[in-house]
Design goal:
Length: 115
């Protein structure tokens, strides 16, 4: 599946799961690790896990099985690796601490308009 479509699918799953402050960042010119980084906030550890599971389930249904899910045990920060799209779902306090979007957006503008 094309990475832009996959990012759009992931964002829709996050929106359906009521994720907060979803950011889609186009990192194609910055790294070869992925084309898009998506960062979202959940309201509780259960919500974070639920949102991440929803993203993984939707991707699998679309024919793109995740390479991995990390962090489900604790639920503070769950990473969904969709190969060309990396989805980070975090509790608000964890997101505030690590500020991932600041790392990427300093060099790349948000890609919401493109997805």
């Amino acid at each position: 599946m094309q990475s832009k479509k996959l990012a759009s699918l992931a964002k829709a799953a996050l929106d359906d799961g009521k994720a907060r402050d979803v950011r889609v960042i186009d990192v194609r010119k910055l790294t070869t690790v992925a084309d898009y980084m998506i960062i979202a906030t959940g309201t509780s550890d259960r919500h974070v896990r639920s949102i991440a599971d929803r993203v993984a389930e939707r991707a699998t249904q679309a024919g793109c099985k995740p390479l991995g899910l990390e962090g489900e045990e604790g639920g503070e920060w769950v990473l969904v690796d969709l190969q060309d799209v990396i989805v980070h779902v975090m509790l608000g306090r964890v997101r505030d601490l690590y500020k991932l979007e600041n790392l990427w957006e300093m060099q790349a503008p948000p890609a919401e308009a493109a997805v």
